[in-house]
Each structure stands twice: as structure tokens, then as C-alpha cells.
Amino acid sequence: MRIIHTDCLVLGAGLAGSAYAWHASRAGFKVELLSLGEPLRANSDWAQGGIIYDTSHDPIRLAQDILAASDGTANAEAIDQLVREGPAAVKELLLDELHVEFDRDAAGSLDLAREGGHTERRIIHAKDATGHAILAALARKVDTTGGIVRRSGFSAIDLATLSHSSSEARDRYEALTCFGCYALDTATGEVVAFVAKKTVLATGGLGGIFLHTTNQPGSVGHGVAMAYRVGARLMDLEYVQFHPTVLSLPGAAPFLITEALRGEGAVLVDAAGRRFMDGVHPLGSLAPRDIVSRAIKQHLATTGEACVFLDLSVLKPEFIRERFPGIYLRCLEGGVDITRERIPVVPAAHFSCGGVHTDLQGRTNVLHLNAIGETACTGLHGANRLASTSLLECLVGARAAAGADVAELHAGQFHQPEPKPWASPAKSADPMLVSQDLNQIRTTMWNYAGILRSPRRLARARRILLELREDIQAFYRDCRPTAELIELRNAVQTALLVVHAAALNPVSKGCHFVAKDEGT
Asked: Which of 241, 349, 445, 503 lies in disulfide reach of 458, CB 3.0 to 4.6 Å?
């Protein structure tokens, strides 16, 4: 078994993982940056609307908006960190270092947009492809920065801990400690052990456990499942945010329609053209995402209609083509000219507000294991995430975690034992069974643990998933690992964790809405 030693091991090369790698390498430490796909295959790349850059003299307004969107449940200390450190994190990396080409007004100032849940304009953007502009620039920087080794095509299998993975028997008496991971090199089929002083989970979200999602393929909560298996604390997993406006066309893959369209004046209407959100919330179509998604779901269930629509008639055609070129072209490919027609939309799983519990420096309860970005949960989002906080959370969290780790790397002594050898079974998993099981997980989660939940639905989901997990674990033990099998194993575990968290929480808040069972 090949063993690779490093200072910092980062699992996931989206915005959070790549930003952490840059900060750690700048301080002189070696970084291994692992990802299954190519550099831009991350949810960060698909973020459309923008990133908060609030340099106002009254940042309390932003804090109030974050807390309001969370239905009063967000962690005040995490909000304070984001509001206080956010502007410097954006300026340092995105503006001064990467020179990301954000949109500007005629005077040359950064153009500020507004999205749902925001009481004012404070979001900078690059057309309707902000995430791509940021991540592409950061990926180029990472690839030219000494000390960072990017390894694409690697799928983490399990974290290595002193309790279970050390070849030294006495290490099982040590405190719960991570010292790297085992990962599959998908190009060769070889399992490689990475031994690290600091291991960082930046694997993104878990929307892929649902049938309809805005997430990149493979986003099934890898970090959550791996952390759970080694005893890390998890929290708020019931709070899965569904984005209310995802393009709905027969035969077409889901495509996010940014909230920034509504921020510019577009409104939600039903098939008859009625602005149904006006009677639901004071902000109408700009209400927080959980409220809008739930209203759409209930409206469709009541009317039997297949979708609702975004009405852009107040926006000039030239403005639409200039400000939202990606959405304009994608809809045009599907036969919808959004300068003249309404956009058919439905909700889809979008963002996990919960995850691996960390402090404000990314530390988990497992020594030397950190989590950042969507994988982590500091309590910033509480029960529901405010629009355009996710990219900012990646920057602030990566900066804080790297700063804390750099200090410990300079000062500390790290026990890095030889990991136990990995033995892979000879059998191959049946790809048809893997695909079928993954589809059953997604269908179960969508039907019974989605936007509208109930105790009876959650109980049914749990029964189905427990049986599935037994089957999956049986052939996982007998088959050599593949990226698809690793994804399936993590997906069923993450799905069970979400269902368990939802079943334990009888209080409807934010993204988590529990209806009474019919007939009770």
C-alpha cells in the first residue's frame, strides 16, 4: 500500500477546500488537495447569484437578516464572525489576490444585487455565474502555488484514526484522533493511505440523496458519513434547504434559476398568472427560501399543476440578456425565451444547513479533524440559510481554520503512525445493483423526507433505508471499492442520519416542516 505524508490533507477542492489550501501553503506547509472530479466539479462552481460584500457602516442589518432567515435559530457568534470577518476575507482573496471580475456600475464601483431574505443590496456578482468566476480564478491560483499537490480522481473511503487505523496497538488507548484517510485512486483502482497532521473535510453538501437537486453529481454527504463513522459530532441535519426556483422542463436536467432574478423584480405566479406569494409573506416572492419552497409545494399539491412560473415581464429584454446570460441561453436551449416567456420552476434540494459540528475555527470533536464549507455546521444558518451566505461562509471558514491550524502546526508535536494496510476483496460490485439502490435512496428521501415531512413518512423512510443499508454493507464488505460503491455507501448512511435527525425534532422551523399525519 502506498503511503503519502503531508502537513494538511484537504478532502474536497471546492471554494472552501481550495481557499484553505491556499492559506496553509502561503504559511509554508505542504498540502494534499484531493477531489473525485476535475478542479471545477464542485457545488461552488454552480453558484449563480453572488457573494455578500457588506462594507456598510451598519452591518447589524446583515446580522438581522441572517437571523430572520433562520427563523431565529442561528448561532449569534457564528453570525458575528461572518459579518465581522467577511469583508476582509472577500477583499484579501477575491479582490486583491485573484482580481475576480465582478460586475461594476458605470462609475466603476462594484454592482450590488439583492436576493430573497435581504433587506438591502449587498451582493456582488459576475453576471449569473459568480461561483464559476471565483472558483476558476482560485483553481488557477492553486495550480501555480508551491506546496499544494492537487490530486483529481481520488475518492476518500474512510478517515484514519488512532483508534482504528494505527498499526501500533497501544494507540487505541489514545484520545479520538484523526491522522489522515484512505482514498481510492480511481484511475488505477489502488487504495492509498494519506497520513496528515491536519485533515480537513470540505466535501460539500448532501443534496444528491434526494431525487431532485441542484447539486453536482456525487454530492451525497461524503464528509458527514465519514465523520459519523469515526465518532464526530453531527448537528442540524434535518435542516435541508430546498431552492424554490429550479428550471422544470420535460426531459431536462434540473438547473438552478438564481434568486437574483427575483431581486431584480421578477415574481412568482401560478398557471393563471396570479402572484400567489403576495398573500403568503410580506416580502412576497422575495420571502426566505424555506417559505417560498413550501408555498410552491403546497400550491402544486392543491392545484395539481406541474410547476409554477417566474414572470420577468417587468425586466427589459436587453437587461435580461446582459445580466443573466447563462440562464437566458440555458432556457433558450429548452425552448423558453425568457425575454418573452415565463420560466417554469419547481423546488429542489439545494443546501444542507447542518453537518459536522465545528467551532468557529473549523475544529470538530475529533482531534486534528476539521470541517469547513457546507460540510461543516457552526450554527451560522440555523434552520434556514440566507441567500448568498454560502460562498462567504466558505471563505471565512477556510481562513479561520487555516489560521488556527497554522498556529498549531508551528507549535505542536503530531503522532503520525504507520496506518494499517488496506486489503481489498476480489469481487466486483454489480453496477446495476449500485445504480438501483442509489435511485431507491433518492426516491425514498424525496417522497418521505423532503419539503413536507410527517412522523409516519419519516418512519417509512427509516424502515426502507435500514433494510437498504444492510444490503449495501453486505456487498460493500465483499467487493473492491469503486467511486460508485463509495458514493452508495455514504449516501445511505447520510440519508439515515437526515431522517433520524428529522424524526427527533417535532418542531417545525425553517427548512424542517413537520405536518400531522392524516387521520390522527
From this structure: 503
Task: Give alpha helix (H) positions in 13-75.
Answer: 15-26, 60-69
Neighbours of 424 (CB within 10 A): 13
| Pair 49, 125: CB distance under 8 Å | yes
Residue 49 has φ and ψ, to the nearest 5°, of -60, -55
Percent residues over pLDDT 90 in the chain: 87
Nearest Cα to Cα of residue 280 among 269, 271, 291, 290: 291
Distance CA 8, CA 18 (A): 12
CA separation for the pair 270, 251 (Å, rounded): 21
Cell of 135: 472558483
Compute the distance between CA of residue 206 and CA of residue 445 in angstroms, rounded to an integer: 12
C-alpha cell at 155: 475518492
Q: By C-alpha distance, which of 301, 327, 259, 220 is closest to 69?
A: 259
Q: Provide DSSP, 90-122.
A: IIIIIIIIS-----B-TTSSBP-B--TT-SS--
Instruction: Determine the pLDDT at residue 518.
Output: 67
Nearest 5°: phi and psi at 413? -110, 135
**Per-residue pLDDT reduced to its tens digit, 499-513:** 999 999 999 999 999
Residues 6+ apart with CB under 8 A from 489: 225, 472, 473, 476
SS3 sequence of 448-484: HCCCCECHHHHHHHHHHHHHHHHHHHHHHHHECCCHH
Cα separation of 294 and 397, whole Å?
30
Report yes or no on whether pTM surpasses 0.85. Answer: yes
Question: Which of 312 and 38 is assigned the larger pLDDT?
Answer: 312
Sign of CA dihedral 372, 378, 381, 383: positive
The active-site residue out of 41, 262, 289, 462 is 289
Give the C-alpha separation, 86 to 312, whole Å: 32
Is 289 catalytic? The answer is: yes
